Amino acid sequence: MTPEQLAAAKAVMVHGPLLIIIVVLAILFIIFATAKLKIHPFMALLLAAYGVGFLSRMPVEFIGPVIAQGFGNLMTNIGLVIVFGTIIGTIMEKSGAALKMAEVVLDVVGIKRSPLAMSIIGYITSIPVFCDSGYVILTPLNKALAKRAKIPMAIMAVALSTGLYATHTLVPPTPGPIAAAGNVGADLGLVILVGMVVSIPAALTGLWWAYRLGRNIESEMDQTNISYDELKKQFHKLPGTVKSFIPIVVPILLIAFASVAKFTEYAGPGSEFIVFFGTPVNALMIGMLLSLTLLPRFDEETLMNWVGQGIKDSAIILLITGAGGSLGAVLSATPISDYIKTLAGGNVSGGIFGLILVFVIAALLKTAQGSSTVALVTTSSLIAPMLPQLGLTSPMDLALTVMAIGAGAMTVSHVNDSYFWVVSQFSGLKITDAYKAQTMGTLLEGLVSFVTTLILFVILH
């Protein structure tokens, strides 16, 4: 759909508060269909996407193409990343590399602090890496630690997912915060510094929520009766430490180097190679090739069956994640974003009120269409011309404005967010449990981040 066609379609679609009601109905339908009717999430998401299209009076000739385009766009962004990451995870599990990593990490932090370890690892990883990719990459380690420490998978899943999420929307060089800082004219160095401060309480809140709720949630991965010692006996010999970590560490470093190069606008020798190897799909491809060094032998069992199992495991995740992208695309094609923007039309004076308004707009956009990056970019573009009227003009004000936008872009991750499905599917969580864990966890993170932003604003003024 071209921009001209989209504008023409929006002109004849439903406008105003009724759109919010339609979105709420779609969310309630997905919860009811998956939890009560036991409809597969893939079907529930697609049905919801069609329902939103028809109820919003989207021209019928556009509904199908928008749904297909949303599915395809998401596959373009993270499809191969999921496939490569799943293959890496399968090989690491079957070769014993994941267990070796678990032993190394536990030797450093101790068994009882495994969730803290994953929260810290996620917090650092997501600064240069998208949280979706980071969760896929770190899942083998997370699962192995859960088994080794005898900690419910839900605790480990929420600790990792919220650790990743804390820096994803607040700390450059992740693209969303960079774009927001650029749109409002904030100093990137100051945004990074403030973002690191604001994201720490967010990550700690997510870790607290993991402990608070995780013990009451059962994951499909907790149902195995195999103990860690029994699991370890399945392997004749565990791989070495370096060989075990390389398939995960190398992709993360490559992506990080590329992010730094883009952030610093490095154009010197080797810049093209840095960007090439640091593109997530290329980095994960390299990680997958490196994981082949873990194979005990090169034969049909390993090269065909192990890799084939990883591909099969990725299929369901791809379908559900793509269907979530379809729903997000339909919502984005409705006038709901335009309606939310009109809510900011009034003049608001006073810095605190301005930050509140910014947070609310970003949260509404995030909740409505699912993408944190879209919420960051859209909100920052919208409010940039209003900043003087909102009383936000100093360098610190602008940095805190980015924090308020980022806090709103956290609030909340649910069924129209691909990250919701990555976390739930890779962690074996039921949809209702994923709402309790992931959605509520991101709500708490967003609120704590915003409160921290307001406290900093008061202290620094």
Automatic annotation (TrEMBL):
Q: Do you know which InterPro entries this protein is assigned to?
A: Glcn_transporter
GO MF annotation, one: gluconate transmembrane transporter activity
Membrane-crossing segments per the record = 12-33, 39-58, 70-92, 116-138, 150-168, 188-211, 242-261, 273-295, 316-336, 348-365, 372-392, 443-460
- Keywords tagged on the record: Membrane, Transmembrane, Transmembrane helix
Q: Does the keyword Membrane apply?
A: yes
- State a single Pfam family of this protein: GntP_permease
Gene Ontology CC annotation, any one:
plasma membrane
What protein name applies here? Predicted D-glycerate permease (TC 2.A.8.1.6)
